[in-house]
Amino acid sequence: MSQFQPRTPSAAASPPGEVPQRKQPANVPVRIFAICLTSVVVAVHYTNYGPLIPTLIGDLHITSGQAGLLSTFLFLGLAVMYIPAGALADRYGQRPVLISSSILLVLGAILLPLLPNFLWILLCRFIVGLGSGAAFVAGAGIASNLGKHSSLGQGMYGGSVQIGSGLGLLVTPVLLTLFGWRGSFFFWGLLGIASIITWLFVDDGQEVHKTSSINVGTGVRSPSVWTLGLSHMGTFGLGNAIAAWIAVYLAYQYSVPLALAATLGSLALLTGVFFRPLGGILIARRVIGAIPLLRLGTILASVGVGLLAIPLRFPPLAFLGMACIAIGATIPYTSVFNEAAHLRNIGKGVAQGLVSMISTPTVLLGPPLIGFLFGNTHSFTLAFGSILLFGSIAIAASFLAGPAVKREIVR
Length: 411
Description:
Radius of gyration: 20 Å
Number of helices: 19
């Protein structure tokens, strides 16, 4: 990983085509806190609909497959915004992108429960996804801009995604009991205001500049971008596709109350709070390389899905499967985004945005596919087993990523 060098006002220290102006950034702990808070309020929307699935099916008269579209439309919004948000962050800085995207997220989330119409809900989930995608890329850019603290910052930022995802599963059943499904969505929407307020007072530390070229085409042609993105599809993407259905899986497979099932599922997600920063620490201390850690993650995540797909009601098997997914889907997070941030001739925001967009097929197709197969077979064997296709592609990509990144990265 390249060593951080303090920026100076000299032209030699600036990338070609950029005219920097010095700003006084907030200190590193404050910036890490701000991006972690944003990460939490974004990630609750990844899973907050999961415990509501049975209620939504009854109230909206939809099928299990249609319920999975709540995840698809959210992540479709993310996919649409990843590249534009990365380009805007490269051109104008991450802070303006974070503020505007947080406003968009809150708007979509608080409008969602106004009408009990499924098409309206999908539209609002798409709007939430637009805000989430832009905020995610901008936050990842700030995390990789922390110099010698970038690995730790990236890991903590990724770990906060797990906090948000875990809270979405853990707290939503309580909100459902207190306020119903509409009140649950509204509560999570209001939470996003905290991110807006925070970024009004926190400077991201990035120098104001205007780039002459965004280099999207260079990123699209980059083997490193594609292999990192496809690998991320089998870690982040796979983990979120399974997380959307984990509460229903535990309730159906082991006959536990839905609230308890959501709690158990959230605990598995919350372990990522430790494993994502751990990945960054291991890389920073050179205990393991970024690419070997990425390969380990893709393998573990797929093994975990395979264990859950085995048609046995054996709790230790479920525990082991969830543990493998929790570790495999989270620990290589820093590997992906720090490597993408240092690719030659590609803007940091564009590279990270492209990697994120390429990783979306699992979260776009996985949840409705799981819902459709489960609804027709009343078994998670084929439903979860189908996700292994994405995992296999990710494993292959992770082994191709090593030589590709080695050729393109700036050390």
